[in-house]
Amino acid sequence: MTAPEPSAQPGADSPGTIVHRKARAGRADHQSRAMSLSKALRLTLAKVADDLFDMSMSAIAVRSESCEGESLQQKLAGAGLLMLLDGPNRSRGAAILDVPLVTGLIQQQTMGKVLPGESDPARVMTPTDAAITAPFLDRLLLRATPLPDDSKDQALISGYHFGAWIEDPRVLCMALEAHSYEIIYMSLDIAGGVQQGNLTLCLPHADADACPEGREPGATGGDVSPIVEAPTATLSETVQNLRADLRIALANLRMPLRTLSQLEIGAVIDLGRADFQDVRIQSLDGAPVGRGVLGQVDGLRAVQASDVLAKPKQQMLDDTAGSMVGLNGPVAPDLGGLNGSRHDPEQMPELPEMPDVGELPALGESETAPELPDLPELPDLPDMSDLPDFDDMPSLTTMQAG
Questions:
Q1: What is the C-alpha separation between 23 and 21, in angstroms, rounded?
Q2: Interval 123-162: pLDDT, tens
Q3: How far is it, in rounded angstroms, from Cα 126 to Cα 113?
Q4: Does residue 222 lie in a domain region?
Q5: What are phi and psi of 50, to 5 degrees?
Q6: What CA–CA distances, in Å, run from 128 to 93, 94, 104, 241, 309?
Q7: Per-residue pLDDT tens for 194-226?
Q8: Residue 295, strand partner residues
Q9: Are residues 125 and 181 in the same domain?
Q10: E strands, 90-156, where?
Q11: Which of 240, 262, 297 lies at the terminal end of a domain, its last residue?
Q12: Is position 185 within any domain?
C-alpha cells in the first residue's frame, strides 16, 4: 500500500497535500481568466490609442498602491502634466502624464508620427497640452470602467473625466480631499519603442459615509438621478478652443544683413509709411490675417479689425463698421447713400444731365482737303558719250568650259 502524502505544516516549505496543490492551481487558472483592473487598463489603453490616433501604445507594467490623503504630496511630486479629474458625487481624482507621453500624443495628432529622441524634462506644461491630451484620458477611463470583474474596481474608475489643468502639485493635492486614494502607476511603450512614458492615476476610495451613487450630497430622498457622462470632444473641437496669439505690425522693413549688423543703441530706422489707421494683423509666423485701426480702450491698446482675410469677400462687405474687436473706433463717413454694399436703386442720387453738343456733320458733307502742290521738274542728266565702251560679257557656257 502507498502511504498517504503528509500534509504541509504552517510556515513549512512543503508544497502541501494534493488538495492544496489542486486548489492553488485552480485559483491561478481563475485569476488568469479574470479581468482585473490592471488588465482592463492594459487592453483599453492599446485600443483607445489605436482608435483615436492610429497610434501604437502598450502597457509595459501596471501596479497600484493605497495611500492616505495626507501623503499625496510625496507621491505626486514628479514633473509632468497635472490634470484634475471630476467624478461622480462631486468627487475628485488626479492624473499625471509625464513629458514623453505628452510629447508623443501631441506629435501623433499634429504630425502623424512620434519622433525619436529624448524629450526635454524641463518643458513647461500649458493648458494647450491639457486640452490636446484630455480626449485620450477621458476615453481610457470611460472604456475601461465596465471591464473589471470586481465591482469595487469598476466603482473606483467609474464616472471620472478631465476637469481642469493644474500648474502646481501643491494646488493639486489641496483639491484632493478624500481620506484615502488608490494610485495606479502605468509604464507605457509608445509607437513600438520610439518613446517610453508614464501615466499615473490617483482615484479616491469609496467612503462608507459617501452619498449613494447618482444622488447629490445632502439629499435625503427622492428619485436617484443618473450620472451623465461628459461628452468626449473631437480633435477639431479641441483645436477650435485653443488660444491664438496675434501681433500687430505698423510697418514692414527690409534691410541688408550688413546694415542690420551695424545697428547700435540710439540708431534711428526710417519706417517709411507707418499709419495707425492701417495696421497689419498677423500671426506669430508673419502670415497676414487682416488689417485694422490701432487705438485705445480703457487705457489699453486695442485694434479695430476693418478687414479680415479669413472671411469671404461678400461677408466682409456686409459687415458693419461696429462689428469690431475690442475698440469702438471711428465710423466711416456718410457718402450720401453710397456707404454700404446694398442699396435701393430708387434711393441712389440722380446724376446731372449731359450738355447738348448738337448733331455731328455727316462724312459726305465735310469739307474737302486742300490739293497738294505740283512737284518741281527734275534736271536733265549730263552727256556721257565720252565714256569708253565695255567689252561684252562672256556667256555662262564659255565660262563653265574654261
A1: 5
A2: 889 999 999 999 999 999 999 999 998 888 889 999 999 9
A3: 21
A4: no
A5: -75, -40
A6: 20, 18, 14, 9, 25
A7: 999 999 999 998 764 444 444 444 343 444 444
A8: 302
A9: yes
A10: 92-97
A11: 240
A12: yes
List the 180-190 sheet strands across, edge first. 57-68, 180-190, 195-204, 92-97, 81-86, 161-166
Per the structure, the complete domain to which residue 286 belongs is given by: 244-253+275-326
Q: How many helices (H) and strands (E) does the chain have?
A: 11, 10
Q: Which cell numbers in the block locate residue 130? A: 491639457
Is 178 in the same domain as 82? yes
How far apart (Å, rounded) are the C-alpha atoms in residues 342 and 324?
A: 20
Asked whether residue 90 is assigned to any structural domain, the reply reads: yes
Q: What is the DSSP letter of 126?
A: -
Q: 236 and 320: one domain?
A: no
- Cα–Cα distance measured from residue 326 to residue 296, given in angstroms and rounded to the nearest whole number: 9
Residue 335: pLDDT band (50, 70, 90) is very low
Same domain, 200 and 60: yes
Exposed e or buried b for every residue in 251-286, given b needs 16+ CB within 10 A?
eeeeeeeeeeeeeeeeeeeeeeeeeeeebbbbeeee
In the chain, how many domains are there?
A: 2
CB-CB neighbours of 292 under 10 Å: 25
pLDDT band per the 50, 70, 90 thresholds, residue 330: very low
Q: Are both 191 and 284 inside the same structural domain? A: no
C-alpha cell at 233: 470632444
The phi, psi pair for 200, rounded to 5°, reads -120, 125
pTM for this model (two decimals): 0.48
DSSP 8-state assignment for residue 251: -
Laid out side by side, the sheet with 288-297 consists of: 246-249, 279-283, 288-297, 300-308
Amino acid at 43: L
Compute the half-sphere exposure of residue 175: CA atoms within 13 Å on the CB side of its CA. 25
Instruction: Note the pLDDT of residue 10.
Output: 46
Task: Provide the pLDDT for residue 86.
Answer: 92
Residue 148: give its domain's CATH number. 3.40.1550.10
Taking residues 159-172, what's their average pLDDT? 90
Asked if residue 265 is part of any domain, the answer here is no
